[in-house]
Design brief:
205 residues; alpha+beta; 37% strand; 3-stranded antiparallel sheet; 4-stranded mixed sheet
Amino acid sequence: MAELPNHDAALTETCLSRDTLHQGTFLTLKRDTVRLPDGQPATREYVQHPGAVMVIPLFDDGSVLLESQYRYPVGQVMVEYPAGKLDPDEDALACARRELLEETGYSAREFHYLTRIHPVISYSTEFIDIYLARGLSAGEQKLDDGEFLELFTASVADVSEWVRAGKITDVKTIIGTFWLEKVLSGVWPLDGHARSASFDGQASC
């Protein structure tokens, strides 16, 4: 396998100063002054996000558990795998277990870390750690106040077709489905390791 080129030294921008434009209960808007690789100054505005996890709940019969949930920013009901943001100082695996139980009522015997994605690299620090959950046991949902969602099961083939047809457009769900197909086909083996999701990727200043 070819090595990925490393262009860090030629492309890295250096933070010179940082301002907080808005401090919300969930998201923070920042503006940094940076030095570009050619030495010139520039500004960068971005959303500071605590990070999140997504869980792909896989049943023994090969079907998966999905959610339908209204997402206000895009103004429509979206189909997704269970997911949620990290609490302060929360480990990614602990968050995966918590979110699966709270949103679906299910617990899992096995959690397999798949990958980390950065869904909006142009204006957000957000990362999402994706887990595959197996050995599912049903229980009671513990939804947050004001959280409304519907659960349903589907075959992986159906989910893939919904992605192809543009009926599923949530990027984390699309990527998770591609990963699941690779894992189930044996092309990509499960590494079996868990990753701690500390805050990732923001330049120091």
